[in-house]
Amino acid sequence: MAVLPRPSSPRAVWRDIRAFLATGNRHKLLFGTLSVAIPTLLMLGFLHDSKIEKPKPEMWFVPSWPADRPDSVIIAQQKIDQAKKDKMLAEKRASYQRLAKRLGID
What totals of helices (H) and strands (E) does the chain contain, helices first? Predict the structure, then answer.
């Protein structure tokens, strides 16, 4: 017992389409075109959106330090790095505060 009907031959499909177009019902033709165009546009939109660029590889340069450098040089460099980090965090905090002010968040 077959559950699905047998597939139609291409000739039968073509004759069916010609008979449909020959009826002259403009509203059927309009809705038939729309029913094919809307899913086609959706599929093309998904296809277009699925193409993403791969990120370019980043190079990281690690500073090399002499093995016999004194602790005072290390502490001085840490203070410089901490100052840069504090400045970056303050800028980030200020941008979030500006955003909260624009959105009315306390």
Answer: 3, 0
Rounded CA gap, 7 and 13, in Å?
Answer: 10
CA distance 42 to 40: 5
Q: How far apart are CA 34 and CA 28, in angstroms?
A: 10
Quick check: 21 and 29 in contact, CB under 8 A? yes
Q: What phi, psi does 19 have (nearest 5°)?
A: -65, -35
Looking at residue 8, its amino acid is S
Tell me the pLDDT tens digit for each residue of 55-79.
Answer: 899 998 888 888 888 999 999 999 9
Contact between 20 and 32 under an 8 Å Cβ cutoff? The reply is yes
Q: Determine the Cα–Cα distance for residues 106 and 14; give it in Å rounded to an integer.
A: 67
